[in-house]
């Protein structure tokens, strides 16, 4: 008999769902209206597939008494209660490495889109303003600018590498300086924001980074500064962000992630200096295929008694 696996959200390319379907008896939770009844029906499920953004809390694990393995389609671990998983002896796999490039590409796209007013320009053409003889305001060039990275792991470093062709000067903020990294370290986030033209958030979410980007950081980034977030909405204090944009204390923002997805602060909708995208930094066919493959491989490893290909780090728990 195939092991039962709960899947919380449809995973990207059909081939990934097909591979899951072939190997497991799936409980497709996103298809059901009555989540509680669906979880009751999944009481013998041994596997759970979730995403980086949905995660899995202790209550969900409690609702699945036979759960032995969680396979996350994502690199972020902040939404998964690893402590609860560890206490229950539940194995956890995730998908590091394979989305680095896709997410980094998106960060660069957002920087260029914001600095060159691409989204605003598109609206300008479509709503007839251009045809009326108006001129779109000038954009600005990323070339030679200072880009501060909040978080300088795999993704931050890849964004920095891509931006090197624009001769940007990278700075980074982390709790500790990283050995062997050529970008300049700044131990003080406000200081780094002050020096930066663009602040890119690419750190992990969770308690350690919650609301790190607050009014002080945004004011330091300044009235011509750009905030880019492809990491987690929780890193930004959203009311402070809205206030900074309304007051003109911040130049603009390009945001792919939000504190309470899919809800986005309504005040941002009318701001032309803000780009809003629906958490799609890893959403290319290529990247989601690679992520989905790892999700499937981690499950297969677990159910064949082999070590997970990419186990979530459980250090310090
Ligand atoms: C996606 C992510 O939201 O990797 C992560 O942590 O947030 C993203 O890649 C998602 O997990 C894809 O299903």
Which properties best describe this structure?
12 strands; 15% strand; five-stranded parallel sheet; alpha/beta; binds 2-keto-D-gluconic acid; 317 residues; seven-stranded parallel sheet
Description:
This protein has helices at 14-23, 35-41, 58-63, 82-88, 100-115, 118-126, 154-163, 189-195, 215-221, 238-247, 285-303; strands at residues 4-7, 25-28, 47-51, 69-73, 91-93, 146-150, 169-173, 184-185, 198-201, 226-229, 252-255, 274-276. It is of the alpha/beta class. The strands form 2 sheets. The chain has a 7-stranded parallel beta sheet, sandwiched between helices. It has a 5-stranded parallel beta sheet with strand order 2-1-3-4-5, with helices on both faces. The model has no long low-confidence stretch (mean pLDDT 97). The structure holds 2-keto-D-gluconic acid. The site of 2-keto-D-gluconic acid has 10 residues, from loops.
Cα gyration radius (Å): 21 Å
N-to-C terminal Cα separation, in Å?
34 Å
Parts with pLDDT < 50 across at least 5 consecutive residues: none
Shape descriptor reads globular
Q: What's the rounded overall pLDDT mean?
A: 97
Sketch the topology as an H/E string, one letter per element: EHEHEHEHEHHEHEEHEHEHEEH
How many alpha or pi helices?
Answer: 11
Major sheet attributes: 7 strands, parallel
Bound molecules: 2-keto-D-gluconic acid
In terms of DSSP E residues, the strand content is: 15-25%
How helical, in percent, are the residues? 25-40%
Number of strands: 12
Strand order of the largest sheet: 8-7-6-9-10-11-12
Class based on secondary structure composition and strand pairing: alpha/beta
């Amino acid at each position: 008999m195939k092991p039962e696996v709960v899947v919380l959200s449809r995973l990207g390319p059909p081939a990934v769902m097909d591979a899951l379907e072939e190997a497991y008896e799936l409980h497709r939770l996103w298809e059901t209206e009555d989540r509680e009844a669906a979880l009751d029906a999944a009481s013998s499920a041994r596997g759970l597939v979730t995403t980086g953004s949905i995660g899995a809390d202790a209550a969900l694990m409690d609702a699945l008494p036979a759960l032995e393995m969680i396979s996350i389609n994502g690199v972020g671990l902040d939404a998964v209660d690893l402590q609860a998983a560890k206490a229950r002896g539940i194995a956890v796999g995730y998908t590091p490495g394979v989305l680095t490039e896709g997410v980094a590409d998106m960060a660069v796209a957002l920087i260029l889109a914001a600095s060159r007013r691409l989204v605003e320009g598109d609206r300008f053409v479509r709503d007839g303003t251009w045809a009326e003889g108006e001129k779109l305001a000038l954009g600005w060039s990323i070339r030679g600018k200072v880009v501060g990275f909040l978080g300088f792991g795999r993704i931050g470093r890849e964004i920095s590498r891509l931006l090197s062709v624009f001769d940007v000067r990278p700075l980074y903020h982390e709790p500790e300086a990283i050995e062997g990294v050529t970008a300049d370290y700044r131990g003080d986030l406000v200081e780094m924001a002050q020096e930066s033209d663009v602040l890119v958030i690419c750190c992990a979410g969770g308690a350690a980074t919650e609301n790190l980007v607050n009014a002080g950081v945004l004011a330091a980034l300044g009235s011509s500064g750009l905030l880019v977030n492809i990491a987690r909405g929780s890193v930004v204090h959203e009311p402070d962000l809205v206030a900074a944009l309304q007051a003109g204390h911040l130049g603009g923002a390009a945001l792919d992630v939000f504190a309470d997805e899919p809800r986005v602060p309504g005040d941002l909708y009318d701001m032309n200096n803000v780009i809003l995208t629906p958490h799609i930094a890893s959403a290319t066919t290529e990247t989601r295929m690679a992520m989905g493959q790892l999700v499937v491989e981690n499950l297969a490893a677990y159910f064949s008694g082999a070590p997970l290909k990419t186990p979530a780090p459980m250090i310090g728990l």
